[in-house]
Design a protein that fits this description.
The chain contains 15 helices and 27 strands. By secondary structure, the chain is of the alpha/beta class.
């Protein structure tokens, strides 16, 4: 059975299937070309295909090749600092090529990879590196992190090369545009297993991203099993051992974990554990504005000294468990000014403290917990909320870091706050609300890649996507993963070396070729590296061209929002229908990836199928057949490696209500 899917039993018979075969159409429009190096000069060899793109590349001639004699060589004096990076790389090269290199010191030989540390280099900063590819491949950086990122480039360049074992000769000077790049995952509403979080750490590192923010508490659960607070954790929660494993793993991949305990709102899990710590006034206890806020205990009563003392201890316990430099205390979705004024104990405390507004009480609370976080030599992170839908006369300490979700981070940064941009209208991934363009919470990679500024400026630490689990807590992890795949890659590319955007189609072709960090997952539609679809020709037994643009070429154009749709205006629609691709040359393939239409429609979503291959366009072999899932997410199906120039997808039935249509957003081929 398939490594990526239970679908796709291989048929061995070779058959002649000419009745469904249409004449080939003109070539699909090629994806717009991208510059080989996002910011530099290109001569000689084109730059390696990577995500993110290299900032600067100067091509030479010829190629460096990995052989069974290749080694990883550590420059003199670097072994203590670079040994872990070298060991990680050695294991990854062994998985990719079958040859595990030794890690040695001494002079380099032809085919070796050399890791070196340099002094400070303003050109690449503290996360960049220089890569010189000659008879040996040398990575030199001011920091261990820079060397590590250079190894990601080597692995991707090898995977996307024709032989999977070589890198074009040349010189790269590579560094990010901003320092913080990554994602927030809402594990408070939806529990994500440790194995998935480790995979996300690898994926972040694969894209040279460095931050994993975990939203660990919400109305559905408290996800840390802390010995100091027996009974607080949900049934599905991370143990101390889990956290230690996860943080050690993140350190290996140069990813910083930011733990978040959301306070004092979203606190029903804490209130259930300690009801005496919650507001009793209905306006603060049960605001009924957000999912989960229709039960008692939404907001903790921070006017009580015992509540603040409890939360100081909780924050200290979390901070002691996570070794990183940041700790988030949330602070979002507090009931607004009207609710606050309807709470007698809150208003009474406001007056006793001499605050102008009840909202000032919550700003004061941020400062109280910030004081606790600073005693642990960490920085406090909060969501921008204190000046939204409530009136305040004071602001939090300027040493806190602000996750700015309501607007661009530039305004907050100009106020003197270190800021991470995660704008709700652009960078949220909330598939429980939105799964296609135009809906709330939907990350549209076309517009984000092309238009979003990703401004680099003083006090803007960087950017992250925020993956919220609202309204879809029962969906499987694989479903949530799908909606975040392309957004994560888009942010990686734009925050590294692409300060200005462009047409996302060329980027998606590069994204497909690079694939995932981990291609051995069985629970997700892992991408082991696809063929480039540049220059492919597509045709179909029928295509709708009157009521919509449903041409066959749309299935190979690297645009997830165009589709091939079988004809429904001319005559009576029927199945089966066939989509045929001419890749231009015979080449090894070992699977396909099917992306259903992404516009919210269901007509034509493929159910029963056959995938056929051919070298001449006349004699066809059934490589795979079965039933694709009834889901808007993509599916990767593997089959026995074969060599083919032509591929045909026979759509035999659909999941839609009519069982008369066929549609495909993208059909990609897995490299053999």
């Amino acid at each position: 059975m398939s490594r990526w899917s239970a679908l796709g039993a291989v048929a061995a018979a070779t058959v002649l299937l000419t009745p469904l075969l249409p004449a080939l159409a003109a070539p699909a429009a090629a994806s717009p070309a991208e510059p080989a190096g996002a910011g530099g000069i290109t001569t000689g060899n084109a730059a390696p295909v990577t995500v993110p793109a290299l900032r600067s590349w100067r091509g030479g001639s010829g190629r460096w090749r990995w052989t069974d004699r290749s080694r990883i060589v550590l420059a003199p004096g670097t072994a203590p600092r670079l040994r872990d990076t070298a060991t990680t790389l050695a294991g990854e090269l062994a998985e990719a090529t079958g040859h595990r290199p030794v890690v040695v010191g001494g002079p380099a030989r032809t085919g070796d990879v050399v890791l070196a540390l340099t002094g400070a280099d303003a050109t690449v900063g503290d996360q960049g590196y220089r890569m010189t590819v000659g008879s040996a491949l040398r990575i030199a950086a001011p920091s261990v992190t820079g060397d590590f990122y250079g190894t990601r480039t080597v692995l991707q360049a090898m995977r996307t090369s024709a032989d999977r074992r070589s890198v074009p000769r040349g010189t790269a000077v590579d560094s990010p545009s901003v320092g913080t790049r990554g994602e927030m995952i809402d594990v408070g509403r939806k529990y994500y297993p440790v194995g998935y979080l480790k995979q996300q750490i690898r994926q972040l590192a694969w894209y040279k991203e460095n931050t994993l923010h975990l939203h660990l508490s919400d109305w559905r659960g408290f996800r840390l099993r802390l010995p100091q607070y027996p009974g607080l954790a949900s049934d599905e929660a991370y143990s101390v051992a889990d956290v230690r494993e996860l943080t050690a793993y993140a350190r290996r991949y140069h990813v910083t974990i930011i733990p978040e305990i959301d306070l004092p709102g979203h606190a029903t899990a804490i209130s259930a554990y300690r009801p005496d710590l919650a507001f009793t006034c209905p306006s603060m206890s049960r605001p009924d504005r957000w999912t989960g806020s229709d039960t008692d205990g939404w907001t903790l009563d921070v006017t009580k000294p015992e509540t603040v003392a409890f939360l100081r201890g909780l924050v200290q316990a979390v901070g002691a468990l996570f070794p990183g430099p940041y700790l988030s205390i949330g602070g979002d979705e507090l009931p607004g000014t009207a609710n606050q004024n309807d709470c007698p104990e809150l208003v009474d405390y406001q007056h006793r403290m001499g605050f102008a507004y009840p909202g000032d009480v919550f700003v004061h609370f941020i400062d109280q917990l910030d004081e606790t976080v600073r005693t642990m030599h960490k920085s406090t992170v909060v969501w921008q909320w204190w000046d939204y839908q409530q009136t305040v006369s004071i602001v939090p300490n300027h040493d806190v870091i602000v996750d700015e979700w309501l607007s661009e981070p530039t305004g907050r940064a100009q106020q003197g706050y270190r800021t991470i941009g995660t704008r709700e209208s652009t960078l949220y991934v909330s598939p429980g609300f939105g799964t296609h363009p135009g809906q709330y919470g939907y990350f549209d990679p076309r517009s984000v890649y092309r238009d979003y500024p990703f401004t680099a400026a003083d006090n803007i630490l960087g950017y992250q996507i925020s993956r919220w689990s609202d309204n879809a807590e029962g969906q499987p992890v694989s479903w949530f993963d799908f909606w975040a795949r392309r957004p994560l890659a888009v942010v990686a590319d734009r925050t590294w070396a692409a300060p200005t955007g462009g047409d996302v189609r060329a980027f998606f072709d590069r994204y497909d070729r690079v694939g995932d960090a981990d291609v051995t997952r069985t629970d997700l539609a892992a991408n082991p590296g696809m063929l480039s679809s540049g220059g492919w020709r597509a045709s179909a037994t029928s295509a709708e061209t009157g009521a919509e643009d449903g041409g066959a070429a749309n299935a190979v154009d690297n645009d997830p929002y165009t589709i091939w749709h079988s004809d429904y205006s001319d005559g009576t629609p029927s199945l089966p229908q066939r989509l045929t691709i001419d890749t231009g040359a015979a080449q090894p393939i070992s699977g396909f990836r099917y992306l259903p239409r992404q516009d919210g429609g269901v007509n034509g979503r493929v159910a029963g199928y056959r995938l056929l291959t051919s070298t001449d366009g006349t004699h066809w072999t059934v490589a795979s057949s079965g039933t694709l899932p009834d889901s808007p997410t993509e599916t990767v199906v593997s089959f026995a490696p074969t060599t083919a120039r032509f591929v045909a997808l026979d759509v035999q039935s659909e999941h839609g209500p009519n069982d008369r249509y066929a549609s495909v957003a993208e059909l990609d081929l897995v490299r053999g």
